[in-house]
Amino acid sequence: MADVAIVGAGQTVFSRSCGVSIRELAFDAFQEALEGLDITTSDIDASIICSAPEYDKQRSPAGLISEYLELTPKPSFYVETVCSSSSTGLRVAWSLVKSGLHKVVAVIGFQKMSELSSRDAAERMGRGADIIWESPFGLTMPAGYAMYARAHMDKYGTTEEHLAKVRVKNSHYGATNPKANYRKELSLEDILKSDMITTPLKKFDCCANADGASCVIVARGDVAKGISEKPIWVMGLGAATDTMTMAGRKQLTGLQCAQEAARQAYKMAGVKPQDIDVAEVHDCFTVSEILAYEDLGFAKPGEGAGLIEDKETYADGKIPVNVDGGLLSKGHPIGATGGSQIRTIVRQLRGQATEAQVKGAEIGLVHNIGGIGQYGNVTILRR
Amino acid sequence: MADVAIVGAGQTVFSRSCGVSIRELAFDAFQEALEGLDITTSDIDASIICSAPEYDKQRSPAGLISEYLELTPKPSFYVETVCSSSSTGLRVAWSLVKSGLHKVVAVIGFQKMSELSSRDAAERMGRGADIIWESPFGLTMPAGYAMYARAHMDKYGTTEEHLAKVRVKNSHYGATNPKANYRKELSLEDILKSDMITTPLKKFDCCANADGASCVIVARGDVAKGISEKPIWVMGLGAATDTMTMAGRKQLTGLQCAQEAARQAYKMAGVKPQDIDVAEVHDCFTVSEILAYEDLGFAKPGEGAGLIEDKETYADGKIPVNVDGGLLSKGHPIGATGGSQIRTIVRQLRGQATEAQVKGAEIGLVHNIGGIGQYGNVTILRR
Amino acid sequence: MGFENFGTVSFTTEAKAADFITYLEQGKVMATRCPKCGVSYFPPKADCPSCLSGEVEWFEIKGKGKLATYTIVNYGPSGFENDAPYILALGEFEGGIQIMARLSKDIASSDIEAGMSLVVVPLKRPEGRISYEFKKG
Amino acid sequence: MGFENFGTVSFTTEAKAADFITYLEQGKVMATRCPKCGVSYFPPKADCPSCLSGEVEWFEIKGKGKLATYTIVNYGPSGFENDAPYILALGEFEGGIQIMARLSKDIASSDIEAGMSLVVVPLKRPEGRISYEFKKG
Ligand SMILES: [Zn+2]
Ligand SMILES: [Zn+2]
User: Fold this and answer.
1) Interface of chain A against chain C, CB under 8 Å?
2) Which residues, 6 or more positions from B315, have their beta carbon under 8 angstroms from its beta carbon?
3) Contact A270, A309 (CB under 8 A)
4) What is the share, in percent, of chain B residues with pLDDT greater than 90?
5) Which of A76, A310, A367, B113 is most exposed, with the fewest beta carbons within 10 Å of its own?
6) What ipTM score was computed for the predicted complex, to two decimals?
7) Per the domain annotation, does B75 fall within a domain?
8) Whole domain around residue A142: which residue ranges?
9) How many domains does the structure of chain A reveal?
10) What is the least distance, in Å, from the CA of B23 to any CA of chain D?
11) Chain A interface test: which of C41, C47, C100 (most A C-beta within 10 Å)
């Protein structure tokens, strides 16, 4: 029986350029996460600050954000797995609580990507791969995912239209999400005719950089029941790592880190893919969502494209996925993304989603990937 | 009763310039940590990678090091509290094990500070304080500690000679530590006549940048007994955070984050300062060691200088401190430092210290501080 | 206007708290206070973590403080080479406000002593940059 | 000699595995193998994590591989602007070795297909930099 719960979840609007400092961004997410909770700042026993440090001008932002939110003298530290940093933060928060060290822990993710010039940002892109062996060839995040896309197409017949249909769906839901950066509905044609970035991925197959923050408050079961009317229980946690290099990958048609993380999470939660009522998956690229369908067991290997073709991942489909618009619509402020995904599932399970509420959702799943499939994180939550 | 143990601890030689890559540096520490243990790499359930990211050219080194050490597909992530990153790593590893998620966890700390030009390194120095409010004045790590030193001198009569005597002791022990970067014995005069960096701290009051890695292997109690002949038990863990800004500090004659971390660790371990047989404290500057004496309760507030004056922190004194030479002799490869401190205490408690073994040491303490007193970590270990 | 001309080197520019700079240009060193719960903040915060309000008001730091501690920095980090030596100090002011700033070049090092009386005043630097510093109070 | 002239942009230079570059200058693309436990590594490792030995030996990657996947990159990151478009590919070679490199400019994009035969060869770039690439095998 789960005895660690999420009692609050908040996020800022994700935008191309927030115009405020990272501490102020964090405050806004923190404020939303504490809304309606019967606690104050001083009830938080520890904080975990999550981001990708290459975008921070501030060294060691954990101390800075702790001071701004008056979380001192409670322990605070920084956790990172690139794009899945705040899911890793949730895993660590869970273990801090479960181990008995703490009762209430805040997981705060943020990224202010607009702080860097686009040239500096592009330089960081180049250092995301193995800097000795693969960065010198010009490997980037889109190129890595593009190689997965190509392999999937060659093996299973997935097409560029299938990829585009993921974006059609996500742009449809993103249009009504007030926290999303990109809120325009896109047609299949818009997407297919957009600029080719790295074959077969086009501009609209890719999510965009953003500024934003998220916050998730985790509490011990007994405490959770006392402070929140609708605690959401952490049922399963999975995490796995794959090689940094593309050369080391043993499978090119799916992310092994996600498959392994899913296996762990389902096992711990005691549920199966067909038990999931609503899911958030890491659609940094359209292809990533199709890989996720298969890696999570929503479709068999090679049958992910069929799921979007049949619209089964729409809100009224067999397994609604990214009905908040996903990273493709919301934008991807690296350290904040996992927390935003968790927030969506928490709201779905509480029946509080203002946009596309999946009726009667009881069990939800978050799939959050760091890097080009380096870090896989799967979290299963229950109302 | 403690049921989480340290089963292995290793470190590289700390040097000004290691000439190898960070992954290879990590390998050397990992190799030493696993020496004599009845496990292989595949028995390690998770890894925590610790460093200060400003010195890394590689983005997200956790994935890189995981691949090099073949720790994939097990989860791996990055943890940071500047200079105390690997003590934070130990705390997180403890909770991952205690919570039941994992049985064996590796904590790998590293830093290759020589990777940056000295100009780039100095630029990082400037961003270690609050970059909006205090960095623009030119606040650096030495200047922050110097302000603590001045306040301590003014209030308690501590002198520059007292500070220098800490370095005399630490250089004495460092001279025989084969892992230390600085292995020359220094006289009181050498130290007092060295270049003034930031009053009252002189060149030899300061530790130096270094390259190095450390590794600590943590295991669940029952597993620990099976794989190690001499497991060292984790009895107490304390962690606290103080404000990023100097303006926010409520006490200038001691580090509140260390006092609070010590209180937690003693309470959890059920021991008192006088029960500690040997300690490693964070002597990034000579004054830091004197503050640590008081913050840890080895001396009353204001009486720290007396402890070094009376040589009570030498190996044959009342409370031996930094008898491996401390950061002042070893050098301070930021992310690796905590693990190196832990390694020294593990070797002391096992009776395996090759240099200054404290006879019959049963209980040891590690005090590891991040930043200018932002992050305090105290760990109590028992043989 | 943001923090782009604040201090010797600005490491970041944007913040909700940037009104501080507008006031500083007008000759005032300001802190913030939460009108709901009364807590005051220096460095100024644009939000109140005590009551989670996003509304704060500005007030000027007036009166005399006293020197809590200081250090004469002989080597500055990158960008500060021409400033060194400079004296960093912490001053305690009314209402529990503590400020870190430099001691004015007017103050001879032989005159510096713990507890000495200080005021905090804006400092327009020759290159068009702006800051604040401590003078004898 | 380290990795300072490897690829289009070198992000770091020092490594125990830098003998790779010496061999590359001699026209050989090499991997490492642990003589104790027989495991082989590409990218080459200077240590063997399988048996924790720090001793490895070098061997040349010979023979033909086949194209596993690829992408035509139209926009490179900083420093790669002049290279784009370039084609990144993964090739599978004997003994479970997989290599990431670029496809040679000799290969017309219309000729590229999954499974095509490849060899990996050193590439001396005009600016004195060195790399390796896939040619038709
Ligand atoms: Zn208030
Ligand atoms: Zn071997």
Assistant:
1) 18-21, 24, 27-28, 30-31, 34, 41, 57-58, 68-70, 115
2) B173, B323, B356, B357, B358
3) no
4) 94
5) A310
6) 0.98
7) yes
8) 138-208+233-382
9) 2
10) 9
11) C47
